[in-house]
Every structure is written in structure tokens, then in C-alpha cells.
Amino acid sequence: MKIARISLHRLAMPLVRPFETSFGTQTERDVLLVHVVTSDGVEGWGECVAGADPVYSSEYVSGCEHVIEHYLAPAVLAARDITAETLDARLRFVVGHRMAKAAVEAAVLDAQLRASGLSFGRYLGAARDEVDCGVSVGIAPSIDELLDEVSGYVAEGYRRIKLKIKPGWDLEPVGAVRALLGDGTLLQVDANTAYTLDDIDHLRELDAFGLLLIEQPFVEEDIAGHAVLAAAIDTPVCLDESITSAAVASDAIERDATSIVNVKPGRVGGYLESVRIHDVCLARDVPVWCGGMLETGLGRAANVALAALPGFTLPGDTSASKRYYADDLTEPFELVDGRLRVPTGPGTGVTVRTDLMAEWATRPPLLLR
Ligand code: NPG
What we know:
Number of strands: 13
Number of helices: 13
Helix content: 25-40%
CATH topology of the largest domain: TIM Barrel
Distance between the termini: 15 Å
Strand order of the largest sheet: 5-6-7-8-9-10-11
Radius of gyration: 20 Å
Order of helices and strands: EEEHHHHEEHEHEHEHEHEHHEHEHE
Oligomer: single chain
Number of domains: 2
Strand content: 15-25%
Bound molecules: N-succinyl phenylglycine
């Protein structure tokens, strides 16, 4: 396959409600889309999940755009023949920048699969035609408002609730939500690196709430610290930010720093590396689940396909479109009995609504050839 043209699109999409985590509050998503066209005229789209600011990881959307424009896209355009499988070797000269690489990979893979009539699910190895869905609940202004929000999601049918926590917003809200849900509902927490080893005694108090897992309590480099915590508490420790590749996943599992793994294609450099992480975990009986980065329907479609692989045994942050967006960029994903259907059409199986894209554009597309 020859990629003849690449264009980069920037849009601002309003969120239906502010999303607060331990690193800040977000009210809209600054979306970067990668569009590729092959020499045969087949199109592919990829979504970059980097945030507006480098607070979840070192990547941020304008940085990704710069890296794609000046390094990744020229390398793809210069290749006489490229596929999603050979892309990694082509782009390896750029260190890191996994979210930028993942967006390019998604676009190339979408075009490749559309050309061959295969869906993401079929290509990645989906074992189910629908996936169990959870929902991520931000830090709320008050416990009452948190309980209201959680009740709404329970009524919509979500199969698992994840609460964002940080020092000063942990035991009390988690206890209140556990009391609301009763013992039967899956509940987990996500700290987004907000704690340190000094907090171990405090974090042990979360054991009282029968949590499915605690996600990424310490900074991403601290695999050793997570191993200490995992040995000290009953709640399973799950790494997110720390897991940047299959090799790191394997190492963290060997060191007993994580007994469940969050897989986010953007964080690990793409869907192919995500499948490798899945395989590493499946071989060791470590459950994985698909994280989310407030994706539009485009990224969501590919994530739902990934979440249908056999090792994804826990509900993911693969929520319905309306959890985040009043109007989605593609046909909306709708929850049925707490599940989303895996798209079956070629590529991602969804269509980018170019009318909405134009409406939400924050600048004209950047055309590269
Ligand atoms: O449902 O798409 C979703 C978002 C799930 O909580 C979620 N994502 O740390 O996992 C996370 C968090 C996040 C969102 C991180 C946006 C960074 C940016």
C-alpha cells in the first residue's frame, strides 16, 4: 500500500459535563484526526488521544501534531510500500511519542482494512460481537452530586463503575458509592498517580469497600513502589500510565506490581502493541480491560473491537457516546443491556461526519503530501 496524502484535522468538541481527575478538569476535547489516502484512493482515519496539556503523560495534542507533521507523516509518505505491520519499523527512529504513532497507525490500518474488506474486530482477533461496558466517573463537587451521577449511570445499565480519586477525595466518596450500589456491583478506583508510598496505610483502608482494583496510585516510573503496595493491600493493583509496551507489561507482572492491566492503544503506541500486551497478559492469566481517553466514535469503534479479544475479561471504559458527547463525530455508540456492539463494517466500521468535523474545526486542515 502506498500512502499518497495525509491531512491533519483539529477540532474542539464540547463535553456534556466537566470531567475532573486528580490532574485537572476538562470541559472540551481538543481532537486531532489523521486522515490518509492511498494511491488507490482508499481513505483511513485515526484519532489521537493526547490531551490539550501534558498532564496525563508527557504527550499533548499540539506536540503530537508537530511530531506527525515533521517526522511521522514524511516517513510514511516517503515509503514506497507501507502496512500497519511495517509501520513500527519505519517510525522507530522517533523515540517515544506513542500517542502520535498510534494515531498514524490507526489511520493506516483503517485504510488497509477498508481496502481488504476486513473489520478491526476480525483483524485484531475479536472473540465476541459485543462488549461489557463500564463508566468512569470524575471527581464531583460534592458526595450528593457524585451519587446522583452514579445513580444515572446505573440506571443506564453500566456494568461497572470507576471512580476517580485523589488525596482528600477517596474513602468518603468510595464508601458512599459502595453503600449506594450494594455489594454486587463492580466498583473500582483510579488515582492517576496522585499518591506516594507514604500513603500505603491510607490506601489499605480502601480494602473495606470490596473494590475490583485500584488503578495507578503512584507515578508511572515507580514499578517497584507498586510492587510494595500490591504486597501490602488486598485490593488488586492495576497499572495504566506505567504500561507503555508489552515488554513493560511483562516486567511489571513478573515483579508483582500489577495483577490486572489497563490497555489503552494511544498510551502504548497503537493497536498492534495493544494486542501484544493482551497476549502477554493472557499467557499469564492476567486479566486486561480497555481504558478510554474520551475518544470520539472513531477511536471508540476501534477500542470496542479491541475489547472483544478473549483476554479482555473485565468491563472497559468503553462507554456510550452520550457519556461524553451530545453529538458524536460518527454514528453514536449506544448501550444495550450494558454492552456495546462491535462494529462489523470494513476498517473501524464507522463513518466520520465531515459536516460536524467542519463545524467543530479550530483551524483549516493541514495537508501533507
Ligand atoms: O471513558 O473514555 C473514557 C475515559 C476514561 O477515566 C478515563 N480516562 O486516566 O483513564 C484515565 C482517564 C483519562 C481521561 C486520562 C482523559 C487522560 C485523559
